Amino acid sequence: VQPHHRALGFCERFGLRLPILQAPMAGSSPPELAIAVAQAGGMGASGALQDTPERIAEWARRFRASSDGAFQINIWIPEDSELDPRARRVRVRAAGRFLRQFGAAPDVDEPGEPRPNFEDQCGAMLAAQPTALSSITGLFPSEVIAGMRERGIAWFCCATSLAEALAAQEAGADAIVAQGMEAGGHRGTFDQDQAERNDVGLFSLVPWFADHLRIPTIAAGGIADGRGVAAALSLGASAVQVGTALLRSPEAGITREWSDALAGLAPEDTVTTRAYTGRLARAAPTSYLAAWTAPDAPRPAPFPDQLRLVTRSRKGNPRGLDEANHWAGQSAALATTDRAGEIVARMWRDAKALLA
Ligand SMILES: Cc1cc2nc3c(=O)[nH]c(=O)nc-3n(C[C@H](O)[C@H](O)[C@H](O)COP(=O)(O)O)c2cc1C
Q1: With bands split at pLDDT 50, 70 and 90, how would you rate the model's confidence at 315?
Q2: Does the pLDDT of residue 121 top 90, yes or no?
Q3: Which of 141, 154, 188, 189 is in Cβ range 3.0-4.6 Å of 136 for a Cys bridge?
Q4: How confident is the prediction for the chain on average, in pLDDT?
Q5: Are the C-beta atoms of 331 and 244 separated by less than 8 Å?
Q6: Is a pLDDT exceeding 80 seen at residue 104?
Q7: Which pLDDT band holds residue 115 (cuts at 50, 70, 90)?
Q8: Can you tell me the distance from the alpha carbon of 254 to that of 284, in angstroms, rounded to the nearest whole number?
Q9: 73 lines ligand 1 (CB under 6 A)
């Protein structure tokens, strides 16, 4: 099938006018951004990881007040830790001690803020009746998959290897988000301990998935202009998912500091780190992140302990600890400050010209 036709088939199935999905970005996907992308003909998204059921419902209500377009709601699948509790404590202590050099001494034993309950979040996501629910870092439990089937909600599953993609296809996923290692934010690898080893670039991942899956592949990671869209579709993708390219748009509402950190950021200067949350993620470089790569630095604590330690340290008069995480994909330098709808429309216009 011709790349353009494959993409149009995907659009028809999911009610889109162009094959571009806004990436769900926990903490950085306000309804305004999703509305702008959906009104331009793409798919909007909510990253619901940190949201209570009430907030999930409220997000969908605000989206629907301004758009009848398509949207996905996304969540991270919790991981059963196989780490021995004693080994975990040793790592939490070491990371807590290391964090003291940044002027804040987190109490390593203090529990963090309670996190929203995953089952309740899934219930609210189903009730919101989006076009699709999407999962990252694993598969939805079978009750949630059954709930999607009943309501006619599609399931998009993020995968970073063919084994993960095949497991999702087997479990009933409707499309696979192929996440290349270029991607900004967290790496979706199911087994978090394997995240560093699992570093396939999108140019290899997309044809590999397209050749081995029955269901469509959505390409994600480093796609930030029409050239990237055309390349991904030519390699076998049916659509693309874009995060970093939209972060500097006014609708994304990120801080001035974060937007400035993305401006002109070279691909080779972005870094992957576990120092913010304990899970591997790609961000703009800082001296805080560099400190964690020193030969004598400990490993960051596992997720979510590292996130808890960093959050507490930030509250305690930090010195040299980054004020916020500036997630960045490798194509950050291509991100513009144009309106999100314009960015998406231009990407598709330029891609069509290249594919013609
Ligand atoms: C700020 C930020 C937050 C993200 N949060 C999530 C998330 O909550 N869930 C998810 O599935 N992916 C998340 N991602 C990853 C995206 O889904 C996608 O894989 C990535 O943005 C694609 O690479 P790009 O940033 O180069 O476009 C996030 C990405 C960024 C940049």
Answers
A1: confident
A2: yes
A3: 188
A4: 96
A5: yes
A6: no
A7: confident
A8: 14
A9: no
> What spacing in Å lies between the alpha carbon of 220 and ligand 1's midpoint?
8
pLDDT at 107: 81
Mean pLDDT check: name the lowest of 41-50, 214-223, 316-325.
Answer: 316-325
Read off the pLDDT band of 80 (50, 70, 90).
confident
Distance from the CA of 179 to the center of ligand 1, in angstroms?
9
Q: Is 313 in the pocket of ligand 1 (CB under 6 A)?
A: no
For the Cβ of 228 lying below 6 angstroms from any atom of ligand 1, the answer is: no
- Cα–Cα distance between 35 and 158 in angstroms, integer? 22
d(CA 356, CA 353): 5
Identify the three-state secondary structure at position 179: strand
Our mutation pick for probing the ligand 1 site, out of 181, 186, 272, 343, counting the most ligand atoms within 8 A of Cβ, is 186
* Least confident among 32-46, 50-64, 94-108: 94-108
Distance 221 CA to ligand 1 centre (A): 8
With a 6 Å cutoff on the Cβ, whether 106 touches ligand 1 is no
Pocket flag, ligand 1, residue 229 (CB < 6 Å):
no
Give the residue ranges of DSSP H helices in 223-324.
226-234, 244-247, 256-262, 287-291, 305-315
Residue 26 CA, ligand 1 centroid: distance in Å: 8
Q: How many CA atoms lie within 13 A of 47 on its CB side?
A: 18
Report the C-alpha dihedral over residues 47, 50, 54, 60, rounded to 10 degrees.
-10
Residue 135 Cβ < 6 Å to ligand 1: no
* Chain-centroid distance, C-alpha 187: 8
